[in-house]
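Exercise 7. Given the encoded structure of a 368-residue chain, write a plausible sequence.
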């Protein structure tokens, strides 16, 4: 790989974020709020980014059974990820800190797309993963024997997730397309590397071409396309072309230009959304004075978490002060029109999120 150095925030930004996260978690604890789920995951991700920066990041996507976990084990020569023969073993994204060719990288193994009964949830999980942890390189893995079988719905999910990442982070990952499990291609009796049978080689090449055409149909630009065999166990090492995969990743990661400050901003925005949900729940059924206190805490916490803190009296400070009154006004308007508690909760959450978006944006100076 081009470099093993992490991408880091400025020291002052890191220190401010670390202390702000500590205050946020302490405040939530004092209110009896157990931090779990997306809020916990995003606070943890922001904390790691502030403390250590982040490594070059590879995210692997593909359908259930494509051999995504086997790719990690093959390229590291270690049984790191669990591999399943039938059931979907990667139900949610998992992050691994690994070393490939002396370079330290972060490898994210995502849940299988189109997994039985949870296809829509998996597509949403992929979107969340790419927004919270934007990859520098995305590996699309697909079984070589299924290169032209029902691939379009999965690629549409990938394309949609990448487009949202582009809109949010201002960049998209390079794509390395990998046809996996080539030992399963005809002729079936040729199951071991180097797969030098002429028919086998022809079918391997055809599978790569089919994957290229599929990605082209969905306007997904390919940085590299290749075929591999990843199976490696204590009894059988059937790995083939893994060095070529390592070279492709090395080349694509060398072109990466992540912006840690932008990633911190996005994480902070998504934390603000989760905090808005918490604050809305805390204020449910409470009087306006209590809700106002929750909103004040919400805004102050977010302001402390920004890498670029607003100075007292500047335009950002005035924008925050102006926005603080909005939730109660919107809440009263909604109650007058609808007169039901459910509508009040929805209006309160919407206004908190709007306030959070304004506060977060006020922390960050435009990139030059």
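Solution.
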């Amino acid at each position: 790989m081009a470099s093993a150095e992490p991408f880091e925030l400025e020291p002052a930004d890191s220190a401010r974020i670390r202390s702000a996260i500590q205050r946020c978690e302490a405040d939530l604890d004092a209110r009896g709020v157990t931090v779990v789920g997306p809020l916990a995951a995003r606070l943890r991700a922001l904390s790691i980014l502030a403390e250590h920066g982040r490594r070059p990041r590879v995210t692997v996507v593909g359908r259930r059974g494509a051999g995504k976990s086997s790719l990690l084990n093959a390229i590291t020569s270690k049984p790191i990820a669990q591999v399943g023969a039938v059931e979907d073993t990667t139900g949610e994204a998992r992050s691994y800190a690994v070393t490939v060719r002396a370079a330290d990288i972060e490898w994210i193994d995502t849940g299988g797309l189109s997994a039985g009964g949870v296809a829509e949830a998996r597509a949403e999980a992929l979107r969340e993963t790419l927004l919270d942890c934007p990859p520098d390189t995305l590996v699309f893995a697909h079984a070589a024997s299924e290169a032209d079988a029902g691939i379009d719905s999965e690629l549409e999910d990938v394309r949609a997730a990448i487009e949202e990442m582009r809109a949010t982070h201002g960049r998209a990952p390079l794509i390395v397309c990998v046809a996996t499990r080539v030992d399963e291609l005809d002729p079936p009796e040729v199951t071991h590397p180097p797969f030098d049978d002429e028919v086998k080689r022809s079918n391997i090449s055809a599978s790569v071409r089919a994957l290229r055409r599929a990605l082209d149909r969905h306007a997904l630009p390919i940085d590299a396309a290749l075929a591999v065999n990843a199976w490696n166990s204590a009894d059988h090492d059937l790995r083939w072309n893994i060095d070529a995969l390592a070279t492709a990743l090395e080349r694509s990661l060398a072109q990466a230009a992540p912006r840690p400050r932008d990633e911190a901003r996005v994480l902070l925005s998504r934390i603000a959304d989760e905090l808005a949900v918490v604050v809305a729940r805390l204020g449910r059924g409470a009087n306006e004075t209590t809700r106002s206190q929750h909103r004040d805490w919400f805004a102050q916490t977010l302001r402390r978490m920004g890498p670029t803190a607003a100075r007292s009296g500047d335009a950002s400070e005035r924008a925050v002060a102006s926005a603080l009154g909005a939730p109660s006004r919107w809440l009263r308007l909604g109650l007058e029109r609808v007169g039901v508690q459910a509508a009040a909760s929805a209006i309160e959450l919407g206004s908190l999120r709007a306030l959070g978006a304004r506060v977060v944006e006020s922390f960050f100076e435009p990139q030059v």
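Remark. Residues 55-254 form a domain with the Rossmann fold fold (CATH 3.40.50.300). Students should compare their own answers with the one above.
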